[in-house]
Amino acid sequence: RETARPAAKPPAPQRRRVRLTHPDRLYWPEDGVTKEGLADYYAEVWRQIAPWITGRPLALLRCPNGIAGERFFQKHAWKGLGRHIVQVQDPRDPKGEPLIAIEDLDGLMGLVQSAALEIHPWGSTIADWERPDLITMDLDPGEAVEWPAVVAAARELRQRLQDHGLAGFVKTSGGKGLHVVAPLQPRAEWPAVKAFAKAMADAMAADDPDRYVSTISKAKRRGRILIDYLRNQRGATAVAAYSTRARPGAAVSAPLRWDELEGGIGPAWFTIRNMPARLATLAADPWDGFRAAAVPLEAPGARRGKAG
Ligand code: ATP
Ligand code: MN
Ligand code: MN
């Protein structure tokens, strides 16, 4: 059991409704984080993580024996699915295997019980499958890229989004990079959103080919940052804000204020262990105002704030 938790804080009562088998199983052995430790983490960040993982199709990275064991990336419902995990049918694939979603904290605890160590939602909701309500631009530094260059890329993306009337929010991936996420009012459908994200990545690569690439060709990547826009197509997923990562260090994908990037926060700085304390001391959620900042995607080619 973790000891970093303030003793005064009462345990989240609801999570008792989902029974954890083998609560002492080590999921992150080097970090001493058990299945119960994971459940405690998610109970503590529930308010913050809920908007990113409820009501959306989810892909899960499941590691029944922890991060050192066998792992599988699971997009479909399975036999013996916990009763708080919901099966949803993709309207475009009415005869296909059902997908997975959750609605509440019990559902999240069901994911913990199922050894889901990473939670990767779609960019659209099951209320509106075809129209994404966010864009995720994934910045993947190639070999020999220094961290300040990744930060600069995130800032540049933010500016480019702003030029199109969109707000950009930044989070660590919990792995090697940063994700810049823009809220959308769900109006444009997947093909238009993908085309927009591709155009933005291509423009960055064309304007600064020494620093950026927009195609996944390893040879070209050394010393460059891949502006990975492919999270923005139907059925693609990106790791959720506040999701844990199945990697040594027990890092989580952490929403940041833009000014925090100045402080040299690295991509795996925030973890299962320090995130609850961070949230307890922050005056406001670093992504406060995310949903309020949503606008519809502009028509292709149009630029906001300019005549015509
Ligand atoms: P990093 O900072 O290390 O790049 P990341 O979250 O951006 O972290 P990955 O974990 O490499 O990147 O995942 C890339 C994307 O591909 C994720 O958004 C995820 O949803 C998806 N993905 C991950 N694993 C698989 C898999 N086995 N099969 C299909 N898609 C996957
Ligand atoms: Mn990435
Ligand atoms: Mn990527």
UniProtKB/TrEMBL annotation:
Top-level taxon: Bacteria
Gene: ligD
Organism: Paracoccus simplex
Name assigned to this protein: DNA ligase (ATP)
Part of the intact protein present: 543 to 850 of 850
